[in-house]
Each structure stands twice: as C-alpha cells, then as structure tokens.
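Exercise: predict the fold of this chain.
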Amino acid sequence: MSEIWTTKSLLAKLISYPTVSADPNLGLITFCADLLETAGAQVTLIPDETGKKANLFATIGPKDRAGVLLSGHTDVVPVAGQNWTVPPFEMTESDGKLFGRGTTDMKGFVASAVICAINASKKELQTPLHLALSYDEEIGCIGVRSLVDMLATAPFRPQFCIVGEPTLMKVATGHKGKTAARVTTTGHAAHSALAPTALNAIHMACDMIGFLRKLQDTLADDGTQDADYDIPYSTVHVGTINGGSVLNIVPDNAEFMFEIRHLAGDNPDVIIAQIEAHRDQYLAEIKPRFANANVTIEITDSYPSLSTDANSGAVGIVESLLKSNHTIKVAFGTEGGLFSSRLDIPTVVCGPGSMDQGHKPDEFIEITQLDACDTMLEALLARLVTGL
C-alpha cells in the first residue's frame, strides 16, 4: 500500500535530502517526480549539464489552457560552520515548530505545493495547475533559467505565478533585482622598500571601492525611492576582497566582489556604466606612468527585479484566497523576476515562514504557517475546479 503523505511528513522527507546548492538535487527531484507521476501528473525533468541536478515541471489538468504556476526552489544554503543544536537534515518537532535546514527556505512551501498537486490529480480541473521546482536558486536563480527557456516556447503560459518564498503568508508584489560583479586590479610589483616606485593593486581596489561608497551615498540621497521597502533605495555592497601574498612585496594583483540590489526604477546597466566610466578616468590618470595598469569589471550573475501591479488580477486572486487586501515588498530576490520580465507572467511571492529564520542554524517553520499555506492552496484548488 502506498504511503499517504501529508505536508508535514513530506517536508520531513524533503529535508532528509541534503540539497545544498553545491551538491546534487536529483534524489529529491526524482522522488517528487515519482510521486507526481503516480498521481497522474505530466512531469518533465530538465537536467543540468552534469546530469546531477534538474528542474521539474509538472502539469495537472487540461493541457490546452494557461493555468496557475506554483514555483519553489529545492536547494538550501550550507550548514558548515553553523552551531546547530538539532540535526540539520532531519526534521525535529518542538513547541509547535519544525526544525531543519530548508523548513522555511523553502521546502515547507514545496511540500505544501506537491501535496496540492497530488490532491489536484483527484479532481476534475477546469484550469490546470503547474508546479515548478528548480535548483541553484540560492546562488543567483541559476537553475530556473532553463525552465524559463522551456516555457518561452510552450504553446500556453501560466495565467499567473505564486513563488512560495517565506513571507509569513503575506502577498508580496515586488523585490529588488541583483547584479553581482568581480573587479580585478592589475598594478606593478616591487619590493616594499621601494613601494613608491610600484603600483599597489590593493590600493587600486580600495580606490575603486571608495567610488562605490560614494555612489551608494548618491543612490541613497538622490536615487529612486520606494517606501514599501525597508531600505527604500538601490544599494551597492562589497562582499569580498583578496590580494597580495607577503607583506614585503607590493602586490600587482587584487580582486573584490560587489553587488547591486536595485529597485525596479533603477537600471543596473546604468549603474555599471557609471562605475566603468570612473574606471576609465582612473586608468587614464595612471597609465602614463604604469602602462600595464588595468581594472576589469566582470558581471558574474544577475536577475531582474519584480514589480507586479498591486491592482492586477493575479494579486486580487491571491488576496482573495487569503482573505486579505494587504501587499508588501520583500528584500530578498526570487525567480519571480524572471517569470515576470522574460515571460510576462504576473507573479507574486507568498509562502509560509519568515526569512528571519532562513539561512540560520536551527532554522524552523511554525506549523501554523504550514497550515495557512495548505489552506491557501486548498482554496486555489477549489477555484481551479470551477475555473478561474
């Protein structure tokens, strides 16, 4: 006799797969695929080039209509170096909370969405339900892009999408976009006793970082503002810096990484162009003395912002499912910006738990939050039976 899954028992199973972004997710994906196919869903797997990771796209109901998409990622952040008091890849229940890596971010929603899909397969849907499970979201919404490519050529696209990142079951209509970049500085080495004759690559990196700090001040004071965000302006942040080998050699190479978290009203390409213009002016002043001096700026990752009209039909439907008329915007990014910008699918972010618990040791989700997510998806399923 096949096991009867609940959202809580399925969450425990999903947590048992240690799907840290650096590691495979195929075990979890094939398990979910088997569950869904057994229930009668049409399932497509989209593997990465290694064959060790894959996206999953499933459809329940009519194949010739747009439908509603539930989207979640299957990867989690590492636990190494964190002080856990419970096993991170086993679910522990205590005081109305479920502990384990990914409970909040975001296997709780994934479990609820898979259960919703299984329940949907037992009903006669007028409007189809689609389910998208992706990999490598935590390192820049990488994996979902091949799934987006597949949907771009599909004859029908979902009517709207719910990305189930943790929002305490509030409807989020927007988040900032992100552009990450690596800056490499090339100087001229010398013995430290002759430092004035050299060009210190670490100093060059610091000069560029100084400009980024001034740029941040400009964005905060004069840039686009959106009071719906805790930080109402676009931000520029330097996260890592490396350079030099020993103290008595002036280094000729250094690098640092920075990111831009931008509002929908700010174009990251324009911000990058400002940084490049400063770089060009900076090098023009240095090269007459050090011809080999250089500063390269390499974009390593980017994803778009999300800005869904709070008065749109998609927002109205999700609000009605929750019996709420309040929307928010969230600080973290999601694949929702890709669904919206590349496929023109109206998208909201709404899921159980709080991101305050995400990425931390002893990550947990409250059972009441899982119950609230199940209730929302049950209401959605009732709407799909009668037709949106």
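Check your answer against the key: The domain at 7-175+305-386 is CATH 3.40.630.10 (Aminopeptidase).
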